[in-house]
Each structure stands twice: as C-alpha cells, then as structure tokens.
C-alpha cells in the first residue's frame, strides 16, 4: 500500500491545519506560535494537507494509468521528509512546502514522460503550476489549480466507481463520453477561474462562473450519481464534485461561501472519499459498508454546510466557524478510527 504514509499524514494534518486555527476564533493570541494564523490556515490546507493526499493517490494510480512501472520508485519515499520539513517551517516561511510540491511535480512528470502519456500531461502540468503557486505564496491560484486537478481526476474516478458499483464493465457502459463536451466544460471552468482570480466581483466573472456551473453540472449528470444512493462511499465522490458547480453558482451571491464550498467541499470531502475508496480497494473490500466511514462523510458534508452559513451569518459567524471546525476535526478522527491501524501497520 504505497499510499500509507501520505494518507496518514493527510488525516493527521487535517486536524492540525484546522485545530491550530481554533484558538484564533476564540480570540487567543497565538502570534508567538504562528506569525499569520489566518493566512497559515489556508496555506496549510492547500499546500500541505491536500497535496499529501494527492501524493499518495498519484503514487498508487500513476503506474496503472500510464501502463508502466513507477519511475523513480526509490525517490518517492523522500517526499515524506520533504513534506515534514515543509510543515515544520510553514508557520514562519510562507513558501515552505514548495520543495515538496516541486519534487512531486517532477516525479509525476518523469512518469508521464517515460510513458509518453499525453492524457496525463495535464496532471503533471497542474502539479508543476501548484509548486509555482507555493513558491510565490499565491493562495487563490493554488485553489484554482487544485480545483483543476479535482475536475480532471474526479471526472475519471466518479464515473469509474459508479460503473463498478452498478456492475458495468467500464464507465463507457454508463455514459457516452463526448470529447468536444469535455473540452468545452474544461475551457469554461478554466476561463471562469481565470477571471475570478483577476476580478472576483466583476459582472464578467459572474457570467463566466454561471456558464461554468452549468457545464460542470451537465458533466456530472452524465455520471448518474443518483444511482449510488445506497453506496455512501461512491455517493460521497459525487457530492464532493457537486461542490464545484455550487461554488461557481455562488460567485456572484456570496464570494466567502464560494471559497469554502470549494475548499471544504470539493477538496476536503473529495479527499476523504478518494482516500477511503483507495484504502478499501487495496484491502480487498472496495465497497464495504461502515458506519464510521459514513459518519466521516456526513460530518465533512456538515462542515461544508456550517462553513457556508458562517460566510453569511454576520456577528454570529465565529460560532458557526467553531461548529464547522468541530465537524471537520470529528470527521478526521473518524477516518483515523476506521483506517489508522491499517495505515500505520499495513494490516487491520
């Protein structure tokens, strides 16, 4: 299980990245521990927590996707100390995670280049751009790039898991993939994110975001997520992806809600869903049912809702933020309760 150290770090750091922010919400002075607590919170999730999950997922999936053995197999374990060093320095050095992300992007690029795999070149390009965003401490750009990765990878994972759950031979039996539509949906989302980065509050951004919301919703409908209502592990992937068009739709109405629909929902819930799915598959129990794991999904979804409410709650916002942080932390605890022993020992 090559993802083990990365997924373990992700689950532990999911609590740290939020837990160290809670004292700020309570009005405590933590400047002696973290120079910029609010800024660190966003960087911690986008440059630390989520990329750790990404490293574990790509380390495991790339050989199958590219059809060749892993390139640099002895170098991948070095990502772990690089990540730990970045996390240790991140409270004081904004770009501390750039070396880890650059090394990850290099390993992904080497794998894709060795296989001459044009299909996954976009994954390597987005990973490299994310490393650049970390180096420049460009948090909004990192969010846009992370969403790009979720749209690429989610577009493979969601229909494939759904087809497998329904007993179909492949996702081609679930829906007819139309390359022109995939390109149009990707282009509309990329344009919407670009204008959102340039002018978040403009009318052009609102119009582009609405178009992106429509195309991403149409893309999602093809995958027939409603047929997975009896399988929380698959439904959670669809629910996470749904936060992408929801975020685009909310751009004009509530920018604060947009950011957290994307971070907690599209990135956070997708992270827990993808990790649990990959762990179960390698443990020989791909579609097993677990009240604990389902609770993790429910609490993460609750954190999305609470964080969205906090964005429009006015003076009561901090209370909703605390509730959202509590739900997120509880979700991470349940994830560790379900998979912690396996991630540490390699067996249940």
Entry keywords:
348 residues, mainly alpha
Q: What can you see in these coordinates?
A:
The protein is mainly alpha-helical and 348 residues long. It is 73% helix and 0% strand. The longest helix has 30 residues, at 37-66. It starts with a helix and ends with a helix. The model has no long low-confidence stretch (mean pLDDT 87).
Give me the count of strands: 0
Could you spell the SSE succession in H and E letters? HHHHHHHHHHHHH
Mean pLDDT: 87
Low-confidence stretches: none
Q: For the report, how would you describe the main beta sheet? A: none
Based on CA atoms alone, the radius of gyration comes out at 19 Å
Number of helices: 13
Helix percent band = over 70%
Q: What share of the residues does DSSP label as strand, in percent?
A: under 5%
Query: Terminal Cα separation, in Å?
Result: 13 Å
Helix- and strand-based class?
Answer: mainly alpha
């Amino acid at each position: 299980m090559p993802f083990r150290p990365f997924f373990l770090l992700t689950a532990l750091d999911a609590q740290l990245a939020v837990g160290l922010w809670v004292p700020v919400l309570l009005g405590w002075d933590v400047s002696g521990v973290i120079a910029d607590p609010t800024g660190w919170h966003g960087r911690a999730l986008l440059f630390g927590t989520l990329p750790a999950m990404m490293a574990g997922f790509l380390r495991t999936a790339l050989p199958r996707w590219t059809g060749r053995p892993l390139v640099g197999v002895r170098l991948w374990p070095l990502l772990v100390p690089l990540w730990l060093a970045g996390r240790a320095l991140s409270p004081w050095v904004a770009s501390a995670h750039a070396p880890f992300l650059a090394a990850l992007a290099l390993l992904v690029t080497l794998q894709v280049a060795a296989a001459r795999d044009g299909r996954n070149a976009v994954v390597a390009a987005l990973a490299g751009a994310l490393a650049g965003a970390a180096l420049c401490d460009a948090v909004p750009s990192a969010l846009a790039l992370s969403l790009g990765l979720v749209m690429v990878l989610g577009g493979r994972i969601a229909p494939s898991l759904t087809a497998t759950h329904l007993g179909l031979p492949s996702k081609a039996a679930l829906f007819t993939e139309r390359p022109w539509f995939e390109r149009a949906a990707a282009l509309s989302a990329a344009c919407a994110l670009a204008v959102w980065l340039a002018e978040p509050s403009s009318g052009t951004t609102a119009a582009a975001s609405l178009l992106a919301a429509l195309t991403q919703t149409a893309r999602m409908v093809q995958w027939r997520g409603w047929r997975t209502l009896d399988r929380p592990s698959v439904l959670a992937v669809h629910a996470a992806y749904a936060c992408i068009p929801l975020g685009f739709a909310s751009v004009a109405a509530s920018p604060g809600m947009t950011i957290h629909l994307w971070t907690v929902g599209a990135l956070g819930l997708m992270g827990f869903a993808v990790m649990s799915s990959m762990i179960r598959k390698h443990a020989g129990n791909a579609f097993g049912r677990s009240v604990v794991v389902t609770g993790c999904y429910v609490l993460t979804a609750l954190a999305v809702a609470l964080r969205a409410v906090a964005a429009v709650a006015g003076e009561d916002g901090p209370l909703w933020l605390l509730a959202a942080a509590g739900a997120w932390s509880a979700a991470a605890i349940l994830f560790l309760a379900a998979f912690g022993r396996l991630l540490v020992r390699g067996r249940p």
